[in-house]
Design goal:
Elements lengths: L18 H15 L12 H8 L10 H26 L4 E5 L6 H4 L7 E6 L1 H11 L8 E6 L7 H6 L8 E5 L8 H13 L6 E7 L10 H8 L12 H6 L3 E5 L6 H7 L3 H4 L2 H4 L1 E8 L4
Parallel strand pairs: 1-2, 1-4, 2-3, 4-5
Antiparallel strand pairs: 5-7, 6-7
Length: about 290
């Protein structure tokens, strides 16, 4: 069905519905962060994406979670920026961004020499992104794009642009998994595992199953659902879920990260424990604990 409210670029490059909204909300957060004196994330293309799509702002509603979301998107980006750079410096010279959205890490991070970044995303969203990037040079060694939905079969397409399943890989599914039905989330994780050589790592934001029904979170989810965006896959124990699929995982203790505490401090008294249990920034390594 055609989305009447679907944004498009001035040249008519359409944006796919659904997850493109999430990508634009993240771009809006990055664009606002760009105006700070000491930004946690520097993304000079974020404002260009918003202008090309002719949209502004974040998710609907004015609850505490909606007000926190731009700052959350920034600290989440900072967390996974550091995860990817640490992985690359530790020997993962392949980085795969699943559901890459409007991610510009291939252009804005200071990658070690020889890193290849691959982006798997809906072809319409990639077309819009390429139009805005306008041949900007990547900061990684090489960048490859795979224009298929990340919930489908993308192994052959990924390998066709140079991905080598025999080499350690740093995977990132930043906001992808919890928008998927559980079976599709499991399928993405299974493909990721199948293509991972020893030494591979992953990062993913996981939604908590225990707090989504809390008074602080329910109004936010209702507002999201009105836009067609929903949280479908949830887990109360991300470490166990990933362990069952072959990964040793850890959910970050957010209150030990100074930049998270500094930026989210105004919201914590209002949201309480739900603020730290609604989502988990999870990273892990292939295989059982050493």
């Amino acid at each position: 069905m055609q989305d009447a409210a679907r944004p498009s670029s001035p040249r008519g490059v359409p944006l796919p519905g659904g997850l493109s909204r999430v990508a634009l909300w993240t771009a809006a957060a990055h664009a606002a962060e760009q105006t700070r004196e000491r930004p946690y994330v520097s993304d000079p293309w974020a404002g260009d994406f918003l202008r090309a799509a002719r949209v502004a702002g974040g998710p609907p509603g004015d609850g505490p979670l909606q007000r926190m979301l731009p700052d959350w998107a920034v600290v989440r980006s900072r967390f996974f920026d550091e995860y990817l750079l640490d992985a690359a410096r530790s020997g993962c010279r392949q980085v795969v961004l699943l559901g890459a959205g409007l991610d510009t890490r291939a252009f804005r991070l200071d990658w070690p020499a020889g890193v290849r970044v691959f982006e798997v995303e809906d072809p319409a969203l990639l077309a819009f992104k390429e139009h805005v990037l306008d041949w900007a040079p990547p900061t990684c060694g090489r960048r490859g794009t795979v224009g298929v939905a990340p919930v489908g079969a993308w192994t052959e397409e990924l390998c066709a642009v140079g991905f080598d399943p025999g080499r350690p890989t740093a995977w990132l599914a930043e906001t992808l998994l919890y928008h998927l039905p559980p079976r599709e989330a499991e399928s993405v994780a299974a493909t990721m595992t199948e293509l991972s050589a020893p030494g591979s790592v992953f990062g993913a934001e996981c939604v908590g199953a225990e707090t989504v029904a809390s008074p602080a979170v329910t109004p936010f989810l209702d507002a999201l659902a009105a836009t067609g965006v929903t949280w479908r896959w949830r887990t109360a124990e991300p470490e166990r879920w990933w362990a069952e699929r072959g990964w040793t995982a850890t959910a970050a203790d957010l209150l030990t990260l100074p930049y998270v505490v500094e930026r989210l401090a105004p919201y914590l008294p209002v949201l309480g424990e739900a603020a730290t249990r609604t989502v988990f920034l999870t990273t892990g390594r292939l295989g059982a604990p050493r």
